[in-house]
Specification:
Helix content: over 70%
Number of strands: 0
Keywords: Signal
Strand content: under 5%
Shape: globular
Organism: Pseudomonas capeferrum
Protein name: Secreted protein
Length: about 100
């Protein structure tokens, strides 16, 4: 009986490895910058402050889960962002955060 549950646990752990390996984090100050810009853009498009905050928090979490720290640094670059990377980020956030 013990064997199947340990096997299931190890399989589940193995499936999570690629996700954990890709998870990144925002550089110092970049997450707050993202939240400020995102919230301003969302309220400018008609969301109330609470909904904008929720959407942007979801977006930040989705970015951290789906991009490496280096990719997040690239997204926050002041000298131009790779268009394909930006499109991928927009798609990830939209899929994770849009209520349909």
């Amino acid at each position: 009986m013990r064997f199947p549950s340990l096997l299931a646990l190890s399989v589940a752990g193995a499936l999570l490895l690629p996700v954990a390996a890709n998870a990144g984090e925002f550089p110092a100050g970049a997450k707050q910058n993202y939240m400020t810009q995102c919230t301003e853009a969302a309220t400018g498009q008609g969301l109330d402050a609470k909904s904008a905050q929720q959407h942007c928090t979801c977006g930040a979490t989705a970015i951290e889960k789906n991009f490496s720290t280096e990719e997040i640094k690239d997204l926050d670059s002041k000298d131009g962002v790779d268009a394909a990377l930006m499109q991928k980020a927009q798609k990830v956030v939209q899929q994770a955060c849009m209520k349909g």
